[in-house]
Amino acid sequence: MNNYSHEMLVLEKKIIKLINNLKENHLMLNQLKTQLSDLKTIEKSLSTKLNILKNQNHSLQIANNLLGGVEGKNITKTKINRLIKQVEDCIIHITEIKNDES
């Protein structure tokens, strides 16, 4: 009987330890959920700020281009040259089609 009592005590201690571990895990889980929620809120706020800054940056780039910044001039020239090249290619293509029809 004494051995049975000893085994019951050992089992009871193990169960108590498991219950305590379960409580600690539950508390940790709740803390992590709260932390996750806080981080999601921060992420959303930062994402909004990033979008605002991107829009401001875009507006500043446009203003800089209008004011004649060197970088803006180069970008604008590149775009214009690309458009001219496309128009020239279209004209050549139309001319070829017209010549083929003749």
Structure notes:
With 102 residues, the chain is mostly helical. The chain has two domains: 1-67; 70-102. Helices cover 96% and strands 0% of the residues. Helix 1 packs across helix 2 (70-101). The protein starts with a helix and ends with a helix.
In short:
With 102 residues, the protein is mainly alpha-helical.
Name the features.
2 helices; 96% helix; 2 domains; mainly alpha; 102 residues; elongated
* String of helices and strands: HH
What's the end-to-end separation, in Å?
115 Å
Radius of gyration: 36 Å
Domain module tally? 2
Number of strands: 0
Unreliable sequence segments: none
Largest sheet features = none
The portion of residues assigned to helices is over 70%
Roughly what is the average pLDDT, rounded to an integer?
89
